[in-house]
């Protein structure tokens, strides 16, 4: 399994709207791609901004290419990102997942 990590920052005022937009674009498009296994979105406050991290999980690098294009190291951005004053990382990171497990129902 491969994890794909992308980060961005938005002004606090756009955090909720951009999170919904992220579901409508990146998460929806990822989940419609064969080989997609799941996603997580993390958020943390910065000074005057919110940082969001999207981690998607994939069966293979070829699955990621089907979503991201030939250069999988580049972020897939969307035309309306600038409406949210998005500060995106243009590069993404990929990791081989060597352990994954969650306790059903939490701790």
Automatic annotation (TrEMBL):
Coiled coil residues, start to end: none
Keyword Oxidoreductase found: yes
Domain of life of the native organism: Bacteria
GO MF, one example: monooxygenase activity
Record has Transmembrane as a keyword: no
Family annotation (InterPro entries): ABM_dom, Dimeric_a/b-barrel
Domain named ABM: residues: 1-71
Keywords on record: Monooxygenase, Oxidoreductase
Protein name in the entry: Antibiotic biosynthesis monooxygenase
